[in-house]
Amino acid sequence: MKFLRFSVLLCFLTAIIFLLFLIRKESVAKGDLLRITMCDVGQGDAFLISRRQTQILIDGGRGEKVLSCLWSELPFLDKTIELVIATHPDQDHIGGLPLVFEQFSVESLLLPPVTRETADFAALSDSASSEKELIGRITAAKTGQKIIIDNEISLTILAPMVVFQEKLAQNAANAETILSAANGFIPVDDGQSNRWSIVLLLQFRQFKMLFTADADSELELALLQAGVLSDVDILKVGHHGSKSSTSELFLERITPETSLISVGENNPYGHPTEVVLERLRTRRIDILRSDELGSVSLESDGQRYWIMQ
C-alpha cells in the first residue's frame, strides 16, 4: 500500500514538473514577442498588450466578459496588470474595470483628464480608490507623454488634446468625485467624452499600432493638424466603426495594413457602418471584427506581425 501511494505521489510530482517545464518553455519561446489581443467583450473595447511578464490593459468593456479574456491570456499564476488605461469615461469602455480591480492586482491607472457623473464612473472611482497599490499612481494623460514598457516598446499619448480647456475650466467647481479638479480631472457633459479619448501610438522596433478609442473626426482632424500622425501597421478603428470616425483624410495619413474593429454582434447602433467598411476596403486594409471572429490576437517580433487564430 505504501509503495502504491509513493508511486501515485511520484507520478503526480512528475506531471507537475513536466507542466511547469512546458509553461517555462513556452514563456521563453515567446519572451521576445509582443502580443496584442482584441478581447471579445461585445459592444465595447478591451485590448491587452503583453510582453514577457508585463501586461497593459486598454479599457475593459461593459461587463464581465473581459475577465475570461484576461484569464486566458495572462501567464500562468500571473495576477498582476502593470497598467490599466481607461481611454474615456463611457460605460462600454470602463464598465468592466471594477471587476478587473477585484480579481487582479493593478499597479497603475491612466485616465483622460475628465470625469462623468455616471454610476459606471463612480464605480471605477470607488474601486480604484480602494486599491492601496494605486495610491499616488492614478494619473491624467497628457499629450506627448511617453510610457516606456521596456527598452524596445513604448506607448506615446497623442491625445487628449486640450481643445475645450476654457469650457472645462468653467465646470471645474462642480467636480465632486474622488477623481476631482484638484487632481487634474474636470467633469464633462454627456456627448463630450469621445473627443477626450486617449489616443495611443504603440511602437515596438519597426512595428506600429494606433489605438484610437472613440476618437471622432474632429479629434482626428486635430491630430492631423498637429502633425503627430505617421504610417502605422495596424489601426484600432475608432468608435467601433461609427460613421463619425475613421475619416478619409485620417486613413490617407496613417495608411494601415490591418484594422481591428471591436464591436458587438447585432448591436443597435449599426456598427460598424458600411461607409467606414467601404473606406477600409477601398484601401485594401484587412478588416478583423470581434463580432465575426471573437477575440483576436496578433504577435510581432518588431519587424513583422501575424494574426493568431
Brief digest:
With 309 residues, the protein is α/β, with parallel strands linked by helices. The protein contains ten helices and 19 strands.
Task: Report on the architecture of this protein.
By secondary structure, this protein is an alpha/beta fold. It has a single domain (31-308), classed as Metallo-beta-lactamase, Chain A (4-Layer Sandwich). 31% of the residues lie in helices and 24% in strands. The protein has helices at residues 2-30, 65-73, 91-94, 97-103, 119-129, 165-171, 217-226, 248-254, 274-282, 290-293; strands at 34-38, 47-51, 54-58, 80-81, 83-85, 105-106, 109-111, 114-115, 138-140, 146-148, 153-159, 186-187, 199-204, 207-211, 234-236, 258-261, 286-289, 296-300, 305-308. The strands form four sheets. The protein has an eight-stranded mixed sheet with strand order 9-7-5-3-2-1-18-19, with no helix packed on it. The chain has a seven-stranded mixed sheet with strand order 10-11-13-14-15-16-17. The protein is globular. 40% of the residues are buried. The model is unreliable at 20-29, 163-167 and 171-178 (pLDDT under 50).
Strand and helix map with partners:
Blueprint: H1 2-30, E1 34-38, E2 47-51, E3 54-58, H2 65-73, E4 80-81, E5 83-85, H3 91-94, H4 97-103, E6 105-106, E7 109-111, E8 114-115, H5 119-129, E9 138-140, E10 146-148, E11 153-159, H6 165-171, E12 186-187, E13 199-204, E14 207-211, H7 217-226, E15 234-236, H8 248-254, E16 258-261, H9 274-282, E17 286-289, H10 290-293, E18 296-300, E19 305-308
Parallel strand pairs: 3-5, 4-6, 5-7, 7-9, 8-12, 14-15, 15-16, 16-17
Antiparallel strand pairs: 1-2, 1-18, 2-3, 10-11, 11-13, 13-14, 18-19
Helix pairs in contact: 4-5
